[in-house]
Write a structure and sequence with these properties.
With 239 residues, the chain is an alpha/beta fold. It has helices at 5-31, 46-57, 74-80, 99-112, 131-134, 154-157, 159-164, 176-179, 183-193, 210-229, and strands spanning 34-39, 63-69, 86-90, 120-124, 141-147, 167-171, 198-201.
């Protein structure tokens, strides 16, 4: 069976992006950095979650952020208030970050700072439930957010995001009573797509679940540090 031109082009684009993502990950491994790719639809609470994370963990974990938005640096400016390096990437009409864009952010990180001093790079992807899940950027961990206001059916309608996630945060739980969200059904639909994903309900407003999230972050940095320590490193300049 012959592929259509559009299908073949899509496969080639994903393959080229994957090569770039692998290259980015090699840099992170070389520097001993864990990278999280944080993804969700617009307005699910990614930036609010990162604000809470930076405020709570920056005294113990050296972090930097690569902040993706189609336009403006509004979210980047919010995160800069926490005293961590924030590299803003405007994607223009693109609805997701890709490996090449993040490579530019990595190059800036290596130029302006000593990257081996960092423990964690948080990539806040563009708000979109589809494309960010298909285009890796060099992350070790994928984190997805789903707010209670989006409805219980989103994991079934947009499965790739939830199939790929290592951790799923159900956000804005303080609003659940007002939108009559069925938390058990949300979790069940997520599990249908990904039985092994860690699910943490959180509220940036009330603080519910944030300590569980912070401990999950700590544990996955420790895992990656152990993985890196058991692999030989071949130092190379960022490209």
């Amino acid at each position: 069976m012959h592929q259509t031109f559009d299908a073949a082009l899509g496969i080639n684009l994903l393959h080229a992006n994957q090569e770039g993502a692998d290259h980015n990950r090699a840099h992170f491994d070389q520097w001993g950095i864990t990278c999280f790719n944080v993804m969700s639809s617009p307005g699910a609470g990614k930036t609010a979650l990162l604000e809470k994370t930076l405020a709570a963990l920056s005294p113990e974990i050296k972090m930097a952020v690569i902040e993706g938005d189609m336009t403006t640096e509004l979210d980047a400016d919010r995160l800069r208030q926490y005293g961590v390096p924030v590299i803003a990437i405007n994607t223009g009409r693109s609805c997701h970050l890709d490996a090449k864009m993040v490579a530019g952010g990595i190059h800036r990180l290596a130029h302006d700072y000593t990257p081996s001093e960092f423990d964690l790079v948080l990539v806040e992807n563009v708000g979109n439930l589809v494309c960010p899940a298909e285009f890796e950027v060099g992350e070790h961990v994928k984190v997805a957010l789903l707010s209670v206001t989006e409805g219980e059916d989103k994991p079934l309608k947009y499965p790739i995001m939830f199939q790929e996630a290592d951790c799923l945060l159900i956000t804005k739980t303080d609003l659940a009573p007002y939108v009559e969200a069925d938390m058990e059904q949300i979790a069940a639909n997520v599990r249908q797509m990904n039985p092994d994903v860690t699910i943490i309900p959180v509220s940036a407003k009330t603080g519910e679940g944030l300590e569980l999230w912070f401990e999950w972050v700590r544990s996955h940095i420790r895992v990656q540090l152990f993985t890196n320590s058991t692999q030989p490193r071949q130092p190379q300049p960022a490209a």
